[in-house]
Amino acid sequence: MAKIDESASNVWMPRLPEGGGPLYLAIADALAADIATGQLTNGTRLPPQRTLAHRLGIDFTTVSRAYAEARRRGLVEARVGMGTFVLRSERAAEAATPAPSGLVDLTMNFPPRSGDGPLSQSLWAAVADLEHSGGMDLLLRYQEVGGTRADREAGAVWLGDMVPELGAERLILAPGAQAGLLALLTLLKVDQRPVAVEALCYPGFRALADHKATPLVPVAMDSDGLIPEDFAAQCARHRPALLYCTPNLHNPTTATMPLARREAIAAIAREYDVIILEDDAYGKLAGNGLPPLAALAPERTYHIASLSKSLAPALRLAYVACPDARSAARLTGAIRATTSMASPLGAAIATRWIGSGLAAQTLAAIQTEAEARRAMALRHLGQDGMQSARHAYHIWLPLGHGWRRGDLASRLRQSGIGVVTSDAFAIGPAPEAIRIGLAAAPDRATLENSLREIADLVCQPPLLGNLIV
């Protein structure tokens, strides 16, 4: 056990910034900074919580919360009957780097950490094993654009329960869904005709359309997603060349199209000769057994299935199922011209994980953690009109009590919480709503605190929280 250093016990005082986020985070950040600079060393005993609260002139619970946050980051340890001590180790040093502002950033949407140690070890062991099977060729040579045969076959296995009769000749590997969508827009853009999209649309696609100077036509939505009748009306009025949509766990509303609606959308696309770009980033995550549009209109649908939401964003890999082998060959050329090849290393990792069953285990772990976090959100925000869906790790919160989305986001940021307003998604007038990512919080305790603060704020009229003198 490290020698106890009494020197700082009665003198350490956090240097706190004026204004900003929650005070407990500021104290934890100050503690992290003093550990990083060496002012506080391993074994230093910190002031008792009540003592520090008295010195700072703040409530005891704020200091207690700050010490708890420091323990969560691995900065300190509590010894029964002795006090709280600085815990300096390589792991603690890594954990001691919070976001610069102490912000709990709930704006991002990526898989939650499951906390499954054995699974993590197995995933890394499979990566390490590539040294023996791929060797230096995997690192030092370019691979086939669109993926090797083995990588495409693995993708066909991964999507086999969703896209019927999918063979490797119809499947292309892209360096992420964004790259796949860029290649498809480049390949399929027709005579400046617009693209039909959901009225609330993935911001990444909005950015691509703007980059390609492609006009977008919003199609109305309801709780079941894209409304077929409005899609037909927009097709008759604007003659879009493409439809871009997310049928499963729509981002941001979490809506999932029921079967009858999918069939109607496919029929309308066929009637008006519209090609479908089906962004199914959440399809494996949803696990609802509903057929994708690629199964209902296979001759005109490009099915983009990113691994970022269901496995790991760091792989930067998406499988694109094309209508036939000829369209797959054309898309390969477009990928070569726009973004070159998918990472051979990322593709090899995905292939190894899929073949060994680790991908399925990881997906199940993500689903379990997502459900735990969604249940937490329902407890705090369910009565406030929150929209969510099974296995989704983002929620959509329409606002009441007179709140405006910008005002709420600003107030939450003052409390150290980041959310996304509807403006990021809206094609046209934006509703008063925010999206909250449940996975970005590093653990459930942090998420619980954030959701509690959000719930406390949205349940009261905006003016009740203001103090103007």
TrEMBL record:
HTH gntR-type domain segment(s): 21-89
Taxonomy, superkingdom: Bacteria
GO function term, MF aspect, one: DNA-binding transcription factor activity
SMART domains in UniProt: HTH_GNTR (SM00345)
Matches recorded under InterPro entries: Aminotransferase_I/II_large, HTH_trans_reg/aminotransferase, PyrdxlP-dep_Trfase, PyrdxlP-dep_Trfase_major, Tscrpt_reg_HTH_GntR, WH-like_DNA-bd_sf, WH_DNA-bd_sf
Keywords linked to the UniProt accession: Aminotransferase, DNA-binding, Pyridoxal phosphate, Transcription, Transcription regulation, Transferase
Stored Pfam families: Aminotran_1_2, GntR
Keyword Transmembrane listed: no
Family according to the record: In the C-terminal section; belongs to the class-I pyridoxal-phosphate-dependent aminotransferase family.
Listed name of the protein: PLP-dependent aminotransferase family protein
Organism from which the protein derives: Novosphingobium umbonatum
Lineage: Bacteria, Pseudomonadati, Pseudomonadota, Alphaproteobacteria, Sphingomonadales
